[in-house]
């Protein structure tokens, strides 16, 4: 039994005339008659009663007609759903993200991507960079937004967004009155930073910036979230080197200043498994690429 045969039968059942059914199907009558005969042969019972005057449905044909219509409807639905999935308009997508991503335009990109695809079930999970790599390998998420790190074999990665690091300091700090701050001016300050095990590459990049400026930072306070970093700095616990987007955190007593004489970027990368969910991930990467250009300007 073939879907084509079902479509042929439904046309005949509705027209009750082989000639009209053939015209409706845009085929000649002989292949239509042949396929109906093959269908009845495969079923082992007659669907139609033919005479020189009329074509009628048998009792079995009436029941078979109803079920054939249901099968064809499901087939059309499957074809439509498959096409939407192939175009990245439907399916499911589990996304991991580091908290810092929510302060960048990446958050609005994800929201827009979700809203524009009513047939897509998108879920998001806050995980640090290490946890995301593990979740990707275990197939617990499909796409990760994380800080740069070593990407294991079998995973693909692409830079999504980059922006400069800036200095966060209390509004009462003597350096807060400057338009720009040189890193070396912070050599005697207490620093607030992520613990290294939480995000090794991010941690090491900031340490390397300070070492390049001629000092090793005194990291006295370690926290997991940029919002907590900003809160501690505003409360006067110390200073911090953070991505520019952290400036979106509105906290009284907190100031952000560009770093003079250096341009080291904070980056977010996307990571995913090979060709898995390619029809959804490629459109998402394309939309995020637009934000990358804006972030680099």
Automatic annotation (TrEMBL):
GO terms for cellular component: protein-DNA complex. Gene3D superfamilies: Periplasmic binding protein-like II, Winged helix-like DNA-binding domain superfamily/Winged helix DNA-binding domain. One of its GO terms (molecular function) is DNA-binding transcription factor activity. PROSITE patterns: HTH_LYSR. Residues 1-58 form the HTH lysR-type domain. Keywords: DNA-binding, Transcription, Transcription regulation. The keyword Lipid biosynthesis does not apply. InterPro entries: LysR_HTH_N, LysR_subst-bd, WH-like_DNA-bd_sf, WH_DNA-bd_sf. PANTHER family: LYSR FAMILY TRANSCRIPTIONAL REGULATOR, TRANSCRIPTIONAL DUAL REGULATOR HCAR-RELATED. Belongs to the LysR transcriptional regulatory family. This is Transcriptional regulator, LysR family. It comes from Alicycliphilus denitrificans (strain DSM 14773 / CIP 107495 / K601).
């Amino acid at each position: 039994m073939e879907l084509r045969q079902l479509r042929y039968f439904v046309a005949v059942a509705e027209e009750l005339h082989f000639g009209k059914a053939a015209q409706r199907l845009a085929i000649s009558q002989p292949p239509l008659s042949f396929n109906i005969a093959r269908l009845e042969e495969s079923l082992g019972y007659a669907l139609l009663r033919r005479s020189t005057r009329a074509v009628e449905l048998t009792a079995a044909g009436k029941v078979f007609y109803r079920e054939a219509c249901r099968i064809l409807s499901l087939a059309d639905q499957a074809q439509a759903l498959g096409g939407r999935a192939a175009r990245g308009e439907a399916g499911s997508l589990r996304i991991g993200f580091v908290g810092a991503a929510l302060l960048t335009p990446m958050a609005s990109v994800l929201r827009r991507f979700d809203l524009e695809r009513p047939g897509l079930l998108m879920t998001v999970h806050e995980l640090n960079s290490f946890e995301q790599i593990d979740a990707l390998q275990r197939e617990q998420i499909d796409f990760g937004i994380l800080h740069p790190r070593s990407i294991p074999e079998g995973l693909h990665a692409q830079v999504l967004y980059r922006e400069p690091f800036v200095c966060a300091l209390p509004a009462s700090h003597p350096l807060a009155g400057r338009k720009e701050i040189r890193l070396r001016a912070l050599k005697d300050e207490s620093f607030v930073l992520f613990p290294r095990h939480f995000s090794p590459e991010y941690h090491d990049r900031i340490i390397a910036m300070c070492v390049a400026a001629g000092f090793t930072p005194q990291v006295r306070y370690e926290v997991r979230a940029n919002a907590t970093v900003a809160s501690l700095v505003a409360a006067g616990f110390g200073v911090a080197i953070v991505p520019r987007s952290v400036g979106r955190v509105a906290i009284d007593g907190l100031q952000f200043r560009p770093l003079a004489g250096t341009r080291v970027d904070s980056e977010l990368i996307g990571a995913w498994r090979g060709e898995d969910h390619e029809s959804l991930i490629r459109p998402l990467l394309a939309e995020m690429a637009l934000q990358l250009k804006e972030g680099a300007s």
